[in-house]
User: What shape does this take?
Amino acid sequence: MTDLAPPPSAGCRNAPVLKERGQREVFCGLTGIVWLHRKMQDAFFLVVGSRTCAHLLQSAAGVMIFAEPRFGTAILEETDLAGLADAHEELDREVARLLSRRPDIRQLFLVGSCPSEVIKLDLARAAERLTEIHAPRVRVLNFSGSGIETTFTQGEDACLASMVPVLPETEARELLVAGALPDVVEDQMLELLEALGIGPVRTLPARCADLDPSVGPNTVFALTQPFLGDTHAALIRRGARHIEAPMPFGDEGTTAWLAAIAREFGVSQERFEAVISAPRARARKAIAQASEPLKGKSVFFMPDSQLEVPLARFLTRECGMDAVEVGSPFIHDAIVGPDLDLLPAGPQISEGQDVERQLDRVRKARPDLTVCGLGLANPLEAEGLTTKWAIELVFTPVHFYEQAGDLASLFARPLNRKARLHLAKNTLGGLGADSPQPVS
Assistant: This one.
């Protein structure tokens, strides 16, 4: 279908995986609400939890919790947690009050911040009951964002998986693209698919409930995010078939992703090349310019977002970096297998985390760049290691051709900053006694 470079003679798909089950250092799945509530314009996310969870969302979103239009917190007090109050009645009352004030809400997600046995609420049954009360105007669903049950990006996975069972049935042959993308990036993707003659194309999540996709035995789906394991399983249970492909990061990933879909829909080689040639050339040029500081540098991925495997493929294959270790909270072979096939052999592949052991490996390897969570970045920087916040890779548009140069730049920035600081230090250190001194 296209002139992609051949995969390495030995990729990492069959490489031994170091599985660690120790102390983790990751955000919980509640954080996914911060981008999902912007994507789904008629949805509301009601977090059922403690004041601690309200403070987490307030800090993560950078706003007061009730100032945002489409999410809030139903705070459980001590009497609720002790089972001394009827939490179901209180929840029903809060939901009724919310919906009376917000007639624009069409989808309401009850998001558990703790397991049911902790908050003394069965949110699945509550969602069913509230749907009966408020249907057909509002559909009520539930999922868990608990840090005990989910890691950072699994909040989105749990949300989308909760939607799949209630999607309408269809016999039509359609392409479903799953994974929340910024609207501008989603529009770019849809334009490329339309130019290839592929359609109809549905997205999950849709921007509003009226645009929710249907699913059936003739549905084929592609993923834009590698952390959608539960959504993948839910779609297969509905009879849909997965189109396996590398994730659409960079020139190579985007081209391979589009090529897999084009093969499925019988797009000719000539049409494929005509559609992708211009945006692909722009992506290659942008990557070449942005990745210059990355060439020959080593990178160590600590597990955080489940983006680690496709990003490691991008950095090694397209930016000239060497991966020391690629750690991910979970490695789902059916989803990231195509990226593992392309990832050159050599790095340690690890799943899960024992944070102290992994920090020991980071300190021993002393990579040029360590991609990690916020809680580990500052301590490692204090030890002289250069870090990249993994969270920024989730909140920044990085998919498809037009964002390929920006993706490379995100990794180049910490190295550029370190180089500038080193130069400034040497320049200031070279000032002699007779040199002009700064005025205090």
Observations:
- Confidence is low (pLDDT under 50) at residues 64-68, 431-440.
- The chain has three domains: 17-24+291-426, 29-150, 174-284.
- DSSP finds 17 helices and 14 strands in the chain.
